[in-house]
Amino acid sequence: MEMIRFTDRRFGLEAILGVHSRGTGVTFGGIRLLPFARAVEAERDAQRLSEAMTHKLSMIGEPFGGSKMVVRAKDQSDRTALMHRIGELVDSLKGFFITAIDFGFKSQDALTIRERTRFILGFDGPGSVGASGTTTALGAFGAMPTILKEISTSPTISGKTFAIQGLGSVGAKLAELILDSGGFVFASDLDESKLERFRGIGGFRAVHPFDILSLRVNVLCPCGPACVINPDTIPDIKADAIAGVANCVLEDEAFDDRLLMRKGILLVPDFVLNAGGVMQGISEHRGRGLQDAIDKLPIIQKNLRKVFRKAKEERIGTMAAAKSIAIARREAMGRCNGHRKGQVPAARG
């Protein structure tokens, strides 16, 4: 694990780029903006999320490295200037880090960052085929029949219940797809305005953020911050399955994985389920269109079946099973491709 640090006194900015693996010398990972996080929390996020990205890429057979940038900025009064500075930091890495906006950013921010670097993808506007959140949601939605079949006798979405925590670009699209297929959606968001587009739609019910994790539903879908599934929340969870639509939903992957297994709740590992966004980024990086990524989304369902089977056969948690598969695939790719480690450009700022 490598940690590249940037600072800028003008914005009280501290950025950490976690590099879990170099792969071919090009790494993929998003940017998170955490204005109120402590330095230790930002570093932990960069470490965990970059590792998850390595596993995510391995599961879909891509040899790129896994990385993640986490930014803290005390002064956001001039947001345009701040986004330009973030773009300059990304550009200073000269293509080693290919990114997309993540938690803490607005959709418009990607366009502003793009004014300073071409190494940001997956947004709505010139220079991209669209927001990667849509592809992430499409991949997760496509996997729902596989998840439902694992927890019940029927893979049909119609009539099933889903709790969605967070209606950002991924959660809102996932809710829309489930409702269109006849499923029932309970949803929450700290920003109540995001609930308005769904009010009055049959099958949708808004709930308080404090209640969303404890609803008795078929599938709980965390689509917001990390670490929401932990020893404090697990005792109250009544869902049959937890679908890791957001990144790093477990606070302690090994411990929480075992807790959920003992409780009989199916965990759908996040780095397996939410790979649609990075699949789109890779397609864009290779100069291909959106359909190229969409055509590859069924690999998510195939991977989940392998994870579920391995977990049952070895009597281990699904997170442990998924990590084992991902690590074996990364090692196999290394042997076959003879990866170049690549050099990380010197940090500036």
Topology diagram in text:
Elements: E1 2-8, E2 13-19, E3 27-28, E4 31-33, H1 39-59, E5 65-73, H2 79-92, E6 97-98, H3 107-114, H4 132-151, E7 161-165, H5 169-180, E8 184-188, E9 204-206, E10 219-222, E11 241-243, H6 253-263, E12 266-268, H7 270-273, H8 276-285, H9 290-296, H10 298-314, H11 318-337
Parallel strand pairs: 3-5, 3-6, 4-5, 7-8, 7-10, 8-9, 10-11, 11-12
Antiparallel strand pairs: 1-2, 2-5
Helix pairs in contact: 1-11, 2-3, 4-5, 4-8, 4-10, 8-9, 10-11
CATH architecture of the largest domain: 3-Layer(aba) Sandwich
Strand proportion: 15-25%
Number of DSSP strand runs? 12
Approximate shape: globular
Number of helices: 11
Question: How many whole angstroms does the radius of gyration measure?
Answer: 19 Å
Q: Write the CATH fold name of the largest domain.
A: Rossmann fold
CATH homologous group name of the largest domain: NAD(P)-binding Rossmann-like Domain
The share of residues in helices is 40-55%
Q: Helix-strand pattern, N to C?
A: EEEEHEHEHHEHEEEEHEHHHHH
Quaternary structure classification: single chain
CATH class of the largest domain: Alpha Beta
Give a description of the structure:
The structure is a single chain. By secondary structure, the chain is of the alpha/beta class. Strands 1, 2, 3, 4, 5 and 6 form a six-stranded mixed sheet that branches. Helix 1 crosses helix 11 (318-337), helix 4 (132-151) packs across helix 5 and helix 8 (276-285) crosses helix 9 (290-296). Mean pLDDT is 94; it is low at 339-344. It is globular. The chain has two domains: 2-120, Rossmann fold (3-Layer(aba) Sandwich); 133-325, NAD(P)-binding Rossmann-like Domain (Rossmann fold), CATH 3.40.50.720. It has eleven helices and twelve strands.
